[in-house]
Amino acid sequence: MPDKQLLILNSQQIQQKIDRIAYQILEDNFDEDEILIAGILPGGNKIAERLKTILEKIAPFRIRLLAIKLDKFSPFLKAEINFDVQDCSNKVIILVDDVLNSGKALAYGFGVFRDVPLKKFRTAVLVDRNHKNFPITTDFAGIALSTVLKEHVEVVLDEEGEEDGAYLR
């Protein structure tokens, strides 16, 4: 790890934020039969898995987990998905990422579903950095953080030998 880092969220705080987001998703979708949680690999998918685990305990609806792998450096949408996008028609989609920085990843994630009629589309992130270059907003955020552009937020989840944490570097 670099010398200069600031712990933003510790393991317990991350779990509290994810729990709160799960309850917000439940409140927003209490009358649904099924929701689809699409995690952007790698960090967003880890958070999506945790949300699914919590929601399976507290929600009356079915939860399906989807994974999206994006090429964030491409000027065009390049995505690998583990599902048939047509199966998402008229469903509720919760798109999940770990950090909202410029908004590009969430914009590309939304692009995966652009040709499918959706019932509802929501976004969830653990950390919203407030430096958007794309017109993306979060519906569910663990923490909103104003930083300078040169600073980087890194979320560490399930790393071998490291405790969960969100760091400003």
Automatic annotation (TrEMBL):
<dbReference type="InterPro" id="IPR000836">
    <property type="entry name" value="PRTase_dom"/>
</dbReference>
<keyword id="KW-0808">Transferase</keyword>
<protein>
    <submittedName>
        <fullName>Pyrimidine operon attenuation protein/uracil phosphoribosyltransferase</fullName>
        <ecNumber>2.4.2.9</ecNumber>
    </submittedName>
</protein>
<dbReference type="GO" id="GO:0004845">
    <property type="term" value="F:uracil phosphoribosyltransferase activity"/>
</dbReference>
<dbReference type="InterPro" id="IPR029057">
    <property type="entry name" value="PRTase-like"/>
</dbReference>
<dbReference type="InterPro" id="IPR050137">
    <property type="entry name" value="PyrR_bifunctional"/>
</dbReference>
<dbReference type="Pfam" id="PF00156">
    <property type="entry name" value="Pribosyltran"/>
</dbReference>
<keyword id="KW-0328">Glycosyltransferase</keyword>
